[in-house]
Amino acid sequence: MIEVQSLSRYYGEESAIEDLTFQIQDKQVVGFLGLNGAGKSTTLKILATLLSPSSGSIVIDGNNYDDTSISFRSNIGFLPEEPPLYREMTVLSFLKHVARLRGMDTTAFKDRLPLVIKQCQLIGKEKSVINTLSLGFRKRVGIAQAIIHNPKLIILDEPISGLDPKQIAEMRSVIRSLREHATVLLSSHNLNEIEETCDKLLILHDGKLVAQGTTEQLSSNLSKETTRMESELVGERSVIETALSNIEEITSFVIEEERIDSCVVHLSMTIAAEHIVPKIIEKGLGLRSLQSARSELEEIFLSLTKGGKS
Amino acid sequence: MNHILLLAKRELGYYLNTVWGYAILAVILMINGILFNTYSMGSNTEKYSTDVLQDFFFFSSGTTMIAGVLIAMRLLSEERGNGTAALLETAPISEAQIIAGKYLGAFSFLTLITICSLYMPFLIEVNGKVSWAHIGSGYLGLLLLGGVAVAIGTFSSAVAQNQIFSALLGSSILVLMLLGWLLGKSTEEPLSEVFSYLALFDRHFQPFMRGRINSESIFFYLSLIFIFLLLSTRVLQSRRIS
Question: Mind listing the pLDDT tens digit for each residue in B21-47?
Fold first, then answer.
């Protein structure tokens, strides 16, 4: 079991994360969600031992981070967003190097290698030079290096970013297979991906953990009186932000995408969709589309990460 | 120790398997060869073999220091640039082991380059006579001086965000330490003594160049290597906290 207790990290006076407390059961896939700057990366880096916490403790199966930080690292496998690979090496020689770096002897490596190659769907690529592989395969080599030493916690930072739909599907199956042997903590901006892959969610906002649980548990807490819509509004971001902030019935909004002359916005409001249209137009904004924001997780995420209008 | 050797092997393998390693080797040997041919051997006036050898060690000290900085400038800054530093920093090894392994690999390659220049002292034998002890002490001096340059390069590489800045910082520290003798001449005691003692070349390399093994200088060079490697370790440790 992974237990994080009152974890905080300060950069000078400013807190990146504050008083995070959560527990993760063995062999779960847990999704870390949060807006940019919410403290996801800081938390993942602390868990991966790349950063020291300012206060708090991390315990993995009784091993405390504070006591034995060097041996503690054997419990963790980490894949940053950009896979850390020595690209001039072949897949096999790279994995061998990483395994030895993490204290595995040759016999243990040889025993473990076939499983890792199979799990990461790298069969036939063992002798390929890493630089010649596609991004999808490089990500899988990145996962292979993270699990080669059989860690208890595998941390994957944005494992699907930059992948095409086929590669995403393949990566999803790789991530699912990891839970057979370890606990997986992953962060992603892709809410659908998190929803499909994870057993539990941790939602961070402004450095604080605002919710944790399964999608079902979180959705049961969601206010049913709020209507959530996705809309494409014509205009500059700043103009749209100002206009939406001045509509009383819109409780929160987030600009998901900026296009050439418009923005895609997620809206949470206290009135029905047909009544919000005239109010948006009244503010001088062009309305290109308005549709229901269907993803349940998206609704949960938006409601939890926007205390007010953002 | 296994981790240190593993990292050293990986670094040495990098230099031996990439163009960069061979480029450094070729450039340093070419410069050494040109200087040897024109400066040591090419003089119109007759020279004793020992003087020719001394001249060889004189200019070789410069190329060895340049090679040391060039070899070491990528050690840690490249890892950070490529994002591979995470591999080392999340492995169950200490920062001191990382630095020791990296240093050992880079120093091994510098030793290889230095050994490749051995044919030049042997060429002096063709028309003259040199003492093996003189060659041995000169090469010991070159390796110690080169070892300091690699340690300074390792430190610069730990501090700098990229390889260019790392090379510039390393070269600046080296030049400052080389100019110690100048500062020693232009200041009064006790400062002049301090600066003269810290001069990397003037006081400490010249005995080796002339065929003398000076234990004080060996201690001086080894101390500098230790200090710069310790500083590099501290820089790595501070990155987890900052």
Answer: 999 999 999 999 998 888 877 767 777
